[in-house]
Design goal:
The protein is of the alpha/beta class and 217 residues long. It has 7 helices and 8 strands.
């Protein structure tokens, strides 16, 4: 991403804290914003409780996300702004675009060194940069996918996280069945601008072995 790239806040991925953790993080704000903040924290915690990964896993994933971002930011501001994260059950997808392999390798190594990380999936584009237009296009793809999954019947959208990098969509999460996993893939491929889908999803009840993702055009 160029020097005029969007600020880090644009790169924020969906990270849902556990009920207690959300309450602790938002408690100081309650005195400023009133009961609305408490209601928001309760709603967030409710979503976590409904996710297949569970409350403890969601809290652990949030801690992993925060620590990786902290390490990236401490190492290099550009790294923090150019890269994005998905974290699910200790599995980390690092996406984005960097000028060279050295930056990619350093980012991956920093992520792997965080306690609780079980796997790091490299989704970084090397030798390319995303200007504001390309970044907005990827963001629009992500929002469209989120909306379609939310509105889809027989799909629990809260169990999935997506990240688009130059139109290549990385999907991670937990499907309730193989059929649901297939339906989600079909929905994503129908979104305009999607060039390729890389599926890192685990099906509920199946072994949590580390495996290569399924990629499709």
């Amino acid at each position: 991403m160029s020097a005029g790239a969007p600020p880090p806040a644009w790169r924020a991925r969906r990270a849902t804290p556990a009920i207690a953790l959300a309450g602790l993080m938002l408690l100081p704000l309650a005195f400023l914003a009133g009961c609305g903040v408490v209601a928001g924290a309760a709603a967030t915690g409710g979503v976590v409780a409904m996710q297949e990964r569970g409350v403890d896993s969601a809290a652990s994933d949030l801690g992993i996300r925060l620590e990786i971002n902290r390490r990236w930011l401490a190492h290099d501001l550009a790294m923090h702004t150019r890269l994005g994260l998905q974290v699910w059950e200790g599995r980390v997808v690092v996406g984005g675009a960097v000028p060279g392999r050295a930056q990619r390798d350093t980012a991956i190594a920093l992520a792997r060194g965080v306690p609780g990380v079980r796997e790091v999936i490299d989704a970084v584009e090397v030798g390319r940069t995303r200007d504001a237009a390309r970044f907005l296009s990827d963001t629009q793809i992500e929002k469209e996918i989120d909306l379609r999954l939310l509105l889809a019947r027989d799909v629990e959208s809260i169990n999935y996280s997506v990240q688009s990098v130059f139109g290549t969509v990385h999907l991670i999460g937990t499907a309730r069945s193989r059929d649901e996993r297939v339906r989600v893939g079909v929905l994503i491929r129908q979104v305009g601008g999607v060039r390729r889908l890389v599926d890192h999803v685990r099906v509920r009840g199946e072994a949590r072995s580390l495996r290569h993702p399924a990629a499709s055009p």
